[in-house]
Design goal:
heterotrimer; A alpha+beta; B alpha+beta; C alpha/beta; B: alpha+beta; eight-stranded mixed β-sheet; globular
Chain lengths: 93, 274, 367
């Protein structure tokens, strides 16, 4: 099962507002605005290694949403977007 | 500032009445040097003018009758590229009771006209074009200069208050008709007093629209602010934190308006209750 | 022999030294400057891309808080701008590293980014416009193809420019990353192919030192100084002349505490055949910035001095080019152009030179 972790390359400055967040990437100088789901996904990977499965399950439970395939796909896509930005990476199995 | 052109001399004399000319005997640290000089592209061709800012010519030359616009643009450019430890947003700023109202907006949003109208109702002008926000404490630094009014905004302000000190109309500029409204004596004399932002209002002039003030959440306000940043990227984390502090310190609103008196009424209701 | 004084700094107190030069020599003197002097410093330092360096020096001297608000705000602004400039270039270097890690060996960072990667004091507050890297000649084609296949494109697509770089220069035509906008100059030597002095790149590559935690190396200290010296006094890029001299001064002050450095420098200067540019660098670093250089090194270096008519002419030209700009002064004209012609003379046979300058002139470029 795919497990994800944060990378050390990017130092991120966070501001969280009513569930949403803005982050500043000190490596690139880019600013990103995250909706509640993206903010939660990034925040939880930053706090420790997680599998995409358990992340989807926990998030769905906390946000009171069904952990169906659509939701799991959204979480995976979000992880991949953060991976493309270099914030997180999939661990080699 | 230096120029031998009579158009510049006249504009400075009318638009900058009430300003103190700095005494050469007590020197200050000069920020930037702006010269408006004439040139003839070819012998016998019509003379043109060009702005020289700290020895460089960043803009192409313009016809002589655009002298005033060239001067004001050059001053804006000079300020935007000073590279201080300040975040600069495209915004007008006015202040009352020590609390500043920041009005970010693009050209045509009506921010300058609204700032001029508020100034005529007792607010103090800090800036009509750029909000210069100090990164260390979030205070807005004043740059009190003539307010530039374009096209129908000129008449709109004159109708709103016939006492507005609107100067000569310059026709045929790249932005249509431009006129400059001189800031009030109070704004000029308090031109060194900073103020802390208390409200963030994004004005939008739209013909025929019912006036409406809609609250914005912080993330949206932050995103909007980013869009109006002049030097945001150059400041790195300091820019991010300054803008984030701004949206945390100020409730933010969208203001749609079709007439100045309605817009001023919206602002008054917002700033006297909250 | 005409003797150029080694030190023009004796009359500092009389105000004969430009306040910018004064701050570069002794940042703690910032507390003595008045408004007029600050106006001159801010203007000249901005024009010479040195305000960040000045700010870093004043910060390190601990006198920033004693300065007027406005001045402090400018100095902080210059530090912030330098940080954000270095952030963008550091990121570019990481992107290049990811891509070229298996393509070139060694991969050497030059100039500004080398100072940043090696964490040298001279990097503090310094701004650079692009990333300069050095690769072995046999890796050049693969490096070029890799960059072109991964988002980099030529800045100049004019066939003449392409031809000029490829046949005569020591670097590829500049490449810019399409999305990030940062320009990378890929060098395979530190001086042009056609010039009279051609330091052997293999020597430099062999002596390069790996940067801990990176795939990059930087030049050995003596070679780093020599590269900066030939860039300024042989390659003829005097647009940032004073900034480059400040780099040389900073490198010499940093590495010069190690006696081994000076003997290595003397060996490398003679091995690479760069006695003449090093002579100029030594003279002007001492005169302008009071760079401490051991007397024995000065004696050896003077053996490479040019004959007096040339030396007198060069002295006039170089001092003019290294002079800080004044707010009311005009643009630097003749001196900079004369040096540009000279530098082209040094790197191209005369006929080629005429052709190159003529083409540049026709296309209406300053150079």
């Amino acid at each position: 099962m795919a497990r994800w972790r944060r990378t050390s390359a990017h130092e991120l400055v966070w501001r969280r507002w009513d569930g949403n967040a803005a982050i500043f990437d000190d490596a690139t100088g880019d600013t990103h605005i995250l909706d509640a789901l993206a903010g939660e996904v990034l925040g939880r990977v930053n706090n420790g290694i997680v599998s995409a499965e358990s992340l989807s399950r926990d998030l769905a439970a906390d946000l009171d949403l069904p952990a169906d395939e659509t939701f799991r796909a959204t979480v995976r896509r979000t992880l991949e977007r953060f991976a493309a930005l270099g914030f997180v990476e999939e661990m080699p199995t | 500032m230096r120029s031998r052109l009579s158009a510049i001399a006249e504009a400075v004399a009318t638009n900058y009445t009430g300003y103190r000319v700095h005494d050469a005997a007590s020197p200050i640290v000069v920020d930037t040097r702006v010269a408006i000089v004439g040139e003839r592209p070819r012998p016998f061709a019509a003379p043109r003018i060009i702005a020289r800012i700290d020895g460089e010519n960043p803009f192409p030359s313009a016809p002589l009758h655009q002298a005033v616009q060239v001067l004001e643009t050059a001053l804006n450019y000079g300020i935007a590229f000073l590279n201080l430890d300040t975040l600069i947003l495209h915004a007008s700023v006015v202040e009352r009771g020590g609390r500043a109202l920041v009005l970010p907006g693009t050209s045509g949003s009506g921010k300058s006209t609204l700032a001029a109208a508020l100034e005529l109702r007792g607010w103090r002008l800090l800036s009509d074009e750029m909000a210069v926000i100090r990164a260390s404490d979030g205070a807005v630094l004043p740059i009190v200069r003539p307010i530039s009014l374009k096209n129908e905004a000129i008449d709109a302000l004159a109708r709103f208050d016939p006492g507005a000190a609107i100067g000569r109309r310059h026709e045929g500029t790249s932005k249509g008709i431009i006129a400059y409204c001189r800031p009030t004596a109070e704004s000029i004399s308090r031109g060194r007093e900073t103020a802390h932002p208390a409200w963030l209002v994004f004005p939008r002039f739209r013909r025929g629209a019912e006036p409406a003030l809609a609250p914005l959440d912080r993330t949206t306000a932050f995103g909007r602010g980013l869009g109006h940043g002049v030097n945001y990227r150059r400041l790195g984390a300091a820019g991010f934190n300054t803008l984030a502090d701004l949206v945390e310190a100020c409730p933010a609103y969208d203001l749609m308006f079709r007439a100045l008196d309605e817009a001023v009424a919206c602002i008054e209701s917002l700033t006297t209750t909250g | 022999m005409h003797r150029v004084p080694d030190d023009d700094g004796l009359s500092e107190a009389a105000g004969a030294v430009h306040p910018l030069i004064l701050l570069l020599r002794r940042p703690e003197a910032a507390v003595t400057l008045d408004a007029q002097a600050w106006t001159r410093v801010l203007f000249a330092a901005r024009k010479a891309a040195l305000l960040g360096r000045v700010a870093a020096g004043i910060g390190a001297a601990g006198v920033l808080d004693a300065l007027p608000d406005k001045v402090r705000s400018y100095l902080n602004g210059a530090m912030i701008a330098a940080e954000s400039n270095q952030r963008a270039l550091r990121w570019e270097v990481r992107c290049l590293e990811r891509l070229l890690g298996d393509v070139g060996d060694p991969l050497v960072l030059l100039k500004g980014m080398a100072y940043v990667a090696a964490n040298l004091p001279v990097a503090r507050g310094r701004r650079a416009s692009d990333v300069d890297i050095l690769v072995a000649r046999h890796d050049l084609a693969r490096v070029e193809a890799t960059l072109l296949g991964n988002g980099w494109a030529w800045v100049k697509t004019d066939p003449y420019d392409q031809h000029y770089y490829r046949d005569w220069m020591h670097e590829l035509p500049p490449l810019r990353h399409v999305a990030r906008g940062v320009v990378t100059d890929v060098h395979h030597a530190i001086l042009p192919l056609t010039g009279r002095i051609r330091p052997d790149s293999d020597v430099l590559l062999q002596r390069a030192r790996p940067v801990p935690g990176m795939r990059w190396s930087v030049l050995a200290p003596a070679d780093m100084v020599i590269h900066s010296v030939v860039h300024l006094f042989q390659d003829g890029d005097l647009t940032n002349g004073l900034r480059d001299l400040v780099d040389i001064d900073g490198l010499l002050r940093h590495y010069g505490t190690d006696p081994v450095f000076w003997s290595d420098l003397e060996t490398q200067v003679s091995r690479l055949g760069v006695g003449r540019p090093w002579f100029y660098a030594m003279c002007y670093a001492r005169r302008r910035l009071l760079t401490p250089i051991p007397e024995t090194v000065c004696r050896t270096t003077r053996l490479a001095a040019p004959s007096w008519p040339l030396r007198w002419l060069m002295d006039r030209l170089i001092m003019a080019a290294l002079a800080p700009r004044e707010p009311d002064g005009g643009r630097p004209g003749i001196a900079a152009f004369a040096l540009y012609v000279r530098s082209h003379w040094l790197r191209m046979p005369p006929l080629m030179l005429a052709r190159h300058l003529l083409r540049k002139a026709r296309r209406g470029e300053p150079r």
